[in-house]
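WARN no homologs supplied; continuing
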Amino acid sequence: MILTEYFINRKTEALRKTSGTRRLHYYRALDDVRHILILCDVSDWKEVEACIHTLKGMKKSVHVCIYTSEQDPTRIWDYGYLLVEAKKDIDLWGFPKKYIMEQLRHLPADMLLDLTGDGASPALRYLMLQHPAAFKVGAKHASGKDWYDFSIVLEDGMHDVPFLFRQVLNYLQMIHSKNP
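OK structure emitted
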């Protein structure tokens, strides 16, 4: 049970404002990306699973951080998947516990791809901002905040994982990177 989201929202906003000034921050072409970390909500798992298969077909190493607020006894997770359970892995103030932060921080990622919706968990946003990936990609809603290095602008209330994924792939294939 989370007492209040006030403190995590405040800390997340401060991290978002300083994320543009972080040291490692540059665009990558899809050909330059070898390791991808996907953030998603368990409710979008079917759509995200199709995205994972596409990336693995492109010879990409894929890790996934999945947020769930409920117990799901039938799930089957791969070794590269990190499950973040609201009732177990989030403290009373809404912050992810230290062991989750450490596990996520050690997942390699040339690119972090956030496939969560506009109403993503503050804990998941906090984890995304704390990850050391140099290139972070996701959706920016028309009236929302900019969280990423590269954003696909979506209409307010729109949450279409396959559309977002196709757009990200399309644009990243067009980027010609000059970064090592």
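The helical segments are 6-19, 45-57, 86-89, 98-105, 122-130, 161-174.
OK
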